[in-house]
């Protein structure tokens, strides 16, 4: 799997799953944007993931996404920045708009979100899928505050839930 880039003030969250599907089929599932069809099914926190134009992901494609975890709602406008056949798909939302609901007030915030789906063929019928979410804060202070306050904890749980939901989907072969 390819290494991740150095991104200043970024916290990386990742989870790897192994699915009983060939890397070709996994890659096709993502590139053909079938993930949008099953987006709500793989996590209770997902609202939508919609490809604006066309029916296939390519560099420059735009995906609109809304998801909520705990007391946080994130609105993303992802732009696909990398598509490497059977290896990686990357998209970035710069910025993502975050709404945090506290008991005493609501906070509007922004951060950049970098998503990497890395694929590794284990054998002809098994593939590892690594999801890496990079949350890039605008300052070291914001990064420290979010880590210290527990603001990243729900997103760590969400990453695992999302990947395990995807694993279930591939295991049940809904997408093929």
Structure description:
It is a single chain. The protein has 176 residues and is α+β, with helices and mostly antiparallel strands. The chain has helices at 23-31, 34-42, 140-149, 153-171; strands at 10-19, 46-51, 62-69, 72-84, 88-101, 106-123, 126-136. The chain has a 7-stranded antiparallel sheet with strand order 1-7-6-5-4-3-2. The chain is globular, with a radius of gyration of 16 Å.
Keywords summarizing the entry:
globular, 176 residues, Alpha-D-Glucose-1,6-Bisphosphate, Chain A, domain 4, 4 helices, alpha+beta
Cα shape:
globular
Lateral strand order in the biggest sheet: 1-7-6-5-4-3-2
Count of separate structural domains: 1
- Share of residues in helices: 25-40%
Structural category is alpha+beta
Tell me, rounded to a whole number, the average pLDDT.
93
Low-confidence stretches: none
Using the coordinates shown, work out and report the CATH topology.
Alpha-D-Glucose-1,6-Bisphosphate, Chain A, domain 4
- Looking at this structure, what is the CATH superfamily? START domain
CATH first level: which class?
A: Alpha Beta
CA-atom Rg in angstroms = 16 Å
């Amino acid at each position: 799997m390819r290494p991740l880039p150095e991104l200043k003030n970024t916290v990386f969250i990742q989870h790897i799953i192994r699915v009983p599907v060939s890397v070709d089929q996994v890659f096709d599932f993502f590139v053909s944007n079938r993930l949008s069809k099953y987006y709500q099914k793989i996590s209770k926190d997902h609202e939508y993931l919609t490809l604006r134009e066309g029916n296939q992901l390519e560099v420059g494609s735009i995906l609109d996404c809304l998801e909520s975890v705990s007391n946080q709602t994130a609105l993303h406008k992802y732009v696909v920045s990398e598509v490497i056949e059977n290896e990686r798909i990357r998209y970035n939302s710069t910025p993502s708009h975050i709404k945090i609901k506290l008991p005493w007030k609501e906070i509007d915030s922004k951060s950049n979100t970098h998503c990497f789906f890395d694929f590794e063929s284990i054998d002809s019928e098994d593939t590892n899928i690594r999801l890496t979410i990079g949350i890039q804060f605008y300052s070291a202070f914001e990064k420290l505050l979010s880590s210290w306050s527990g603001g990243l904890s729900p997103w760590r749980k969400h990453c695992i839930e999302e990947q395990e939901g995807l694993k279930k989907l591939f295991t049940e072969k809904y997408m093929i």
